[in-house]
Amino acid sequence: MNPDAGGPTTVFEQLWTPYRMAYIQGEGKPTGDHDCPFCLIPAMTDVDGLIVARGTTVFVVLNKFPYNAGHLMVVPYRHVADYTDLTGAEVAELGACTQTAMGVVREVSGAHGFNIGMNQGSVAGAGIADHLHQHAVPRWGGDTNFMPVLGLTRVLPQVLTDTRQLLADAWPDDPPAPVPTSPGPAT
């Protein structure tokens, strides 16, 4: 029998994830800055908020629901939704903290690579669309296996508070400041 005879529906198996519908419909998502976790976290202790480092305009926090061990987020203190809403100073510090985060995670866990990015808007996959945050997800060769794909289970080798402490201890006391760029020579 030709597997392509009936089109894609006869070739591909279906993988249903009905538990995701609550997420898609927004159950339990914050509705404003009064219940936004990224607005509430800075008022917590570093341990309780899983904060790795605090900057002037942004902070670095361990993801409470990580894709991989050491999954960090760089978050502006200001409650803004879009990257274009950031000031130049916030953009610079967000970038500098992301670079530092990558170096620290490589130092403490030997990450082979990273997925760096932000989802802008709920349609783009942002879990908390109203407060911008950039993900720094460490990756290792072979880290995607059957456990998360078929078993719906993530295997994390360390409890979050221990991971937070390890990263916070390795975070430089005085990370390099972002270097402002000049607009270039006048023409």
Describe the structure in your own words.
It comes from Klenkia soli. This is Diadenosine tetraphosphate (Ap4A) hydrolase. The chain is α+β, with helices and mostly antiparallel strands and about 190 residues long. The protein has a single domain, classed as HIT family, subunit A. The chain is built from seven helices and five strands. Strands 1-2-3-5-4 form a five-stranded antiparallel beta sheet.
DSSP, total strands: 5
Would you identify the regions where 5 or more consecutive residues have pLDDT less than 50? Answer: 145-153
On the 0-100 scale, what is the average pLDDT? Answer: 79
Order of helices and strands: HHHHEEEHEEHH
Say what the CATH topology is.
HIT family, subunit A
Q: What shape does the CA trace take?
A: globular
Helix content: 25-40%
Strand order of the largest sheet: 1-2-3-5-4
Helix count, DSSP H or I runs of 4 or more residues: 7
Q: What is the correct CATH architecture?
A: 2-Layer Sandwich
| CATH homology superfamily name | HIT-like
The CATH class, by name, is Alpha Beta
Domain HIT: 37-146
Pfam family, one: HIT
Binding site for substrate: 63, 135
Active site: 133
